[in-house]
């Protein structure tokens, strides 16, 4: 059975998540590329799965850092 992009995304976020459940989106992107997921712009790809993943932006960092976690 083939793993879907949704499942790969959830696994990737889970594997990068810190104790608080949030994962740096850049780290998630590395794993997705390693798993051969084609997505173009990562933030737009993530928006395709609002039922399973939520995001937040840390504007205090320069450049801003985006985080994701499984809902």
Describe this structure in words.
- The chain is an alpha+beta fold and 71 residues long.
- The chain has a single domain (5-70), classed as Nucleotidyltransferase, domain 5, CATH 3.30.420.
- Helix content is 39%, strand content 20%.
- A three-stranded antiparallel β-sheet has the order 1-3-2.
- It starts with a helix and ends with a strand.
Please summarize what this structure is.
The protein is an alpha+beta fold and 71 residues long. It has one domain (5-70): Nucleotidyltransferase, domain 5 (2-Layer Sandwich), CATH 3.30.420.610.
List keywords for this structure.
alpha+beta, Nucleotidyltransferase, domain 5, 3-stranded antiparallel sheet, globular
């Amino acid at each position: 059975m083939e793993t879907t992009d949704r499942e790969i995304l959830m696994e990737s976020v889970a594997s990068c998540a810190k104790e608080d459940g949030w994962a740096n989106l850049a780290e998630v992107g590395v794993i997705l590329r390693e798993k051969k997921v084609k997505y173009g712009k990562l933030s737009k790809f993530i928006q395709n799965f609002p039922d399973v993943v939520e995001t937040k932006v840390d504007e205090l960092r320069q450049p801003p850092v985006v985080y994701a976690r499984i809902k």
